[in-house]
Amino acid sequence: MDSVSDSRHVVIIGGGIIGCCIAYYITRHPSYDPDIHTVTLLEASQLAGGSSGKAGGLVATWADPQCIAPLSHRLHTELSEEHDGGRRWGYRRVNCADVDAMGDAVGHVNTERDGSQFHPHATSAPKLTDLPPGLDWILPGSITSYTELGTPENTGQVHPYLFTTSIASLAEQRGVKIILGSVKKINYSQDGRKAESVTYMLKHTSEMHKLSATDIVIATGPWTKYVYPAAPIKESRNHSIVVRPAKPTSAYVLFPELQPKVPQKRIPPEIYSRPDGTIYSCGPSDEDVPLPETSDLVQVNQEACDTIYNDIRSISDEIRDGEVLIKQACYRPIVQGRNRDIGPLVGPTGIQSLWLAAGHDSWGIQNGPATGMVMSEMLFEGKVRSADVTSLDPRRVLNVP
Ligand SMILES: Cc1cc2nc3c(=O)[nH]c(=O)nc-3n(C[C@H](O)[C@H](O)[C@H](O)COP(=O)(O)OP(=O)(O)OC[C@H]3O[C@@H](n4cnc5c(N)ncnc54)[C@H](O)[C@@H]3O)c2cc1C
Ligand SMILES: *[C@@H]1O[C@H](CO)[C@@H](O)[C@H](O)[C@H]1NC(C)=O
Ligand SMILES: *[C@@H]1O[C@H](CO)[C@@H](O)[C@H](O)[C@H]1NC(C)=O
To answer: Which SUPFAM superfamilies match (predicted)?
Structure first.
């Protein structure tokens, strides 16, 4: 291992939550000295332009994988305390539950006509009397079970776009250079065993540049296959909407479950009440449109967004009388493999100087801080102190000689 005084030139590829957290935690490492080390983050389109700016933003100690989730949750609390996260990125504690949702109990919603997911005529279903009293923005009778997943003790939320861009500017203040440019190629030594530099195209001028590095960290989420085809990372698109409800809603995140008694065609949308007075809701994934080359080119299917709205307005007057502010879509990075519990991949690739931090699936916002911290320890110390991340080692799934 190099001694800490050796100067490191770290290039991070990708300005989503993972790249930004890695940049930030490198600058927080005791060995980091901005006069000795350089850290450059290259982002192809826009910071947080992918799922990092369009996610729900739930953070929880009980997230997957358990080897980093509790650490990351603690780091969220610390970041928020240190940098006024409540004000800057909407950090707050929240309740979270699985619910069986039955739709409008009086049957205003016609399933066939508007395609609403929740069953409209379920008046015979048992009504749950012990809903939390604070959950007053769901129509009585439209939820028939409430199974607590998280409480304010172990669950919270952030506004993902504000969180990611805030972490990026904190990293910048501590010496990280952020460049809008797209990495076209990672250059290797002649024997292919060492990564030496990246070739990138500046976004605004299309000029090509080369940047040499002692360490190259790939944090390109679902786009990883374009820069590093060996990585078994695929993508899946989910649509989501942001609604301004007619009245402010209390701090709950609801995961409606499939109602076993009612034949279902699709997975019901998740519902997140947010501290900025909006409600975020995301629907199931679809494989209709393959990943476009950049986040600017992600297509939004209006109908998929309308379906989400129709679903959630059927169980809440506040939502029904509200206004849809945003319709959007984004791609989650998923580690391919027979075992669907594999991922994310965080650590050495087996090629010298080349590191991977991608495949965070549904929990990248939550697991970004721990990913950043363990990567900073790998870079500066050659091993990880803060968590046991052997199960995330990319070399387990990469076939590097
Ligand atoms: C609908 C939805 C809801 C979600 N809700 C939650 C939630 O509640 N809680 C949670 O923890 N997680 C959630 N997630 C998951 C989370 O959004 C992702 O795991 C996380 O954003 C992935 O971050 P990333 O930085 O790896 O990828 P991205 O956010 O995709 O960032 C990758 C970046 O790399 C850039 N890039 C790509 N190629 C290049 C290149 N060649 N050169 C330079 N830059 C490049 C891209 O432009 C992009 O900005 C949700 C995801 C979805 C889809
Ligand atoms: C990097 O790769 C590009 C494209 O193959 C090549 O033109 C360039 O000379 C390489 N640079 C180095 C330093 O190897
Ligand atoms: C996205 O779609 C998948 C599959 O339909 C679903 O399980 C998941 O809950 C959706 N939302 C997120 C944030 O992944």
So the answer is: FAD/NAD(P)-binding domain
Q: What is the pLDDT of residues 129-143, one digit of tens each?
A: 567 889 999 987 788
Mean pLDDT computed over 40-60? 98
Query: Which residue is closest in CA terms to ligand 2's atom 12?
Result: 187
Pairing relation of β-strands 143-150 and 92-93? unpaired
- Reported as a pLDDT band with limits 50, 70 and 90, residue 105 is very low
Q: Which ligand is nearest to the CA of 195?
A: 2
Task: Pull the structure tokens for residue 257.
Answer: 């479950």
- Judge if the upstream peptide bond of residue 70 is cis by omega within 30 degrees of 0: no
**Tokens linked to 32:** 């980091």
One-letter amino acid of 260: P
Residue 240 and residue 83 in contact, taking contact as beta carbons nearer than 8 Å: no
Please say whether the beta carbons of 333 and 224 come within 8 A.
Answer: yes
Homologous superfamily (CATH) of 8-89+158-230+339-396 is FAD/NAD(P)-binding domain (3.50.50.60)
Does 108-154+234-334 carry CATH code 3.90.70? Answer: no
Q: Which atom of ligand 3 is nearest to the CA of 286?
A: 5
Provide, rounded to the nearest whole percent, the portion of the chain with pLDDT above 90.
79
How many CB atoms are located within 10 Å of the residue 290 CB? 8
